[in-house]
Design a protein that fits this description.
Elements: E1 32-33, H1 36-43, E2 53-57, H2 65-68, E3 74-79, H3 82-95, H4 97-101, E4 106-110, E5 128-131, H5 138-147, E6 154-160, H6 161-167, H7 178-184, E7 187-195, E8 200-201, E9 208-215, H8 225-237, H9 243-246, H10 254-257, H11 271-282
Parallel strand pairs: 2-3, 2-5, 3-4
Antiparallel strand pairs: 1-8, 6-9, 7-9
Helix pairs in contact: 8-11
Amino acid sequence: MASKFKKNKKTFTKQFDKEDAVRAKKHLGQHFLTDESIAKQIGDTLTLEGYRNVVEIGPGMGVLTKYILQKEVDLVAMDVDRESIDYLKTSFVLEHPEVRAHKGMFSIIEGDFLKYDLSQLFPDEPFAITGNFPYNISTQIVFAMLANKERIPEFTGMFQKEVALRICGTPGNKTYGILSVLTQAFYTAEYLFTVPPTVFNPPPKVDSGVLRLIRKSDCTLPCDEKLFFIVVKTAFGQRRKTLRNSLKTFQLDEETRALAIFSQRPEQLNVAEFVELTLMVSKTL
């Protein structure tokens, strides 16, 4: 499907007010987005179809938060950085009319998303995840989403471009790997647009990429899910080898190993073929 978003090829000049109010911390992987146009585009990646609850991870100084608050949502903004939390609870709340005009719930939580008890967020209700994700934990955030996929119908946001391309990678492409298969087993992935380093403070050394994941209507697998994860990770652990060699640890019988699928490399298989592979492995356990 064609994306309505366009790549940003120029440096935008409209900056977020008081961009130095919170100091970006290298150990937290913080790069604060300063471009209002891009922040609005990221906010618009949320379809709000079938849900109204949203969790924003790493809101920083709220450049994206205020655009989410313009929508009919209940929003939890979660950040591990105390300085960001203090800013959001004081200056941001006082200075932005979006907060005062917002009719839904808006909560600011100091916490580590990767360690937080997600059952406490919107109990028994679905919620989407979005954000300008810290590079150093972005992959972990994806795995946390997969562990809670039953409650998360949509996931959007900004990653390091290389990671975003891996999540959205397709078979036969060099970006296709573990993240691609495990994510696309349960979600439809779409790479939306690229963001240049010049619109961040401080600027990262690489481009960023914005994507959208929409959970499939049937997100159950016709095989053991845990074993599926193990097979995929084992196969890509030696991605240059054929499956006949990379899956030796499963001690498959000669008849099974002689099948055509085992002469392929892992990046050649789609999700359905990895499911087929998992079913074969399960017969040997």
